Amino acid sequence: MSQPTPSNKGASVQPNKLNLRTARTLTEFMDLIDEFKPEIPGTLWFRGQSNASHELIPGVLRNIITTSDSMGRSIKQGQIQVSSGGGASGLSTKRLLQTFKRHARPFLDHAPANDFEWMFIAQHHGMPTRLLDWSTNALVALFFAVQRAEVRQGDGIEQCNAFLEDPSNEDGFAIFVIDPEKINREAYKVPGPIDVAANPEKWSDWVNPMESSKAIDFPICVCAPHMTNRIRAQSGAFTLHGRFTHALDYYSPLKPHITKIFIPYTSTAAIRDSLAQVGITESFIYPELDTVVRDIVRTETARFKHWLSHRSLDDQDE
Fold it and tell me: What are φ and ψ of residue 178, in 5° steps?
């Protein structure tokens, strides 16, 4: 039995809930982006994730374990919890950053001026931090999501309808859209995004929020100076997570300011081709010789496969 085409009209625009949308082509995706009306044009942030079930949580918080319950009692490994709250533990962001600073100096042309600049550089070299990368370019975010996404067959209609019923659906990838102005205003009543590296003394508690006496619980939207080509390529846009270990899309007051666009894996191959057609490639995002080579090889491989398939058809006709 055929499935009805998913409708985005009025989809989950409800208090304290994520706004949910679906797309199956690049055109549908861009039509959705055009519908956003931020208070200040051009200020939306985008993040692509190759699995739509993944939450908006930074690397260092993805392997947190609960060590005590809400009464302060120690929790043994594998023990079932029946209540929320308590203590948690994970990688030490303070020790990670200190170690990175000791080892990274010989490889840097210019020494970072403060801990925030060190944190931004560490993040872009793969170190787990409390930072989560965003982009001011919707197509760049879409590229990052689709590059590692699975490729499946079908029309994707059933998967889109399932996502609107259950946003944790794993049958596609996702692009999240936020308005940093509204996120910061809701969480801390401050304008955003915040240039924390420009005034490191004022925002110093955010370097190690677990040691701060201030109530810096929720994530905040921050911007980074363009110290490297990779930071520049991704716009230097981040959410910096505070003392709480939950994902950005966990907090009820922030959910209305977050939109999740689901794209089924059945659209992966077509959207990759569409992005390449409009010039959104790895070497466009990261203009380095290594990425230029990868794009050349990728294009030539596609050309060879096309020739090979037509050669096989010609052989069948003979």
Answer: -135, 160
Six-digit token pair at 223? 């911007």
What is the rounded CA–CA span in Å between residue 46 and residue 179? 9
Q: What tens digit of pLDDT does each residue of 97-151 get?
A: 999 999 999 998 888 999 999 999 999 889 999 999 999 999 999 999 999 999 9
Q: How many CA atoms lie within 13 A of 224 on its CB side?
A: 34
Instruction: Write down the H helix ranges in 18-92.
Output: 26-35
Strands lying side by side in the sheet with 258-264: 19-22, 258-264, 172-178, 45-49
16, 252 Cβ separation under 8 angstroms: yes
Q: What residue type is 106 in one-letter code?
A: P
CA torsion angle 5 258 148 154 (round to 10): -10
Which position has the token pair 């590059």? 147
> What are the tens digits of pLDDT across the range 24-65?
999 999 999 999 988 788 899 999 999 999 999 999 888 776
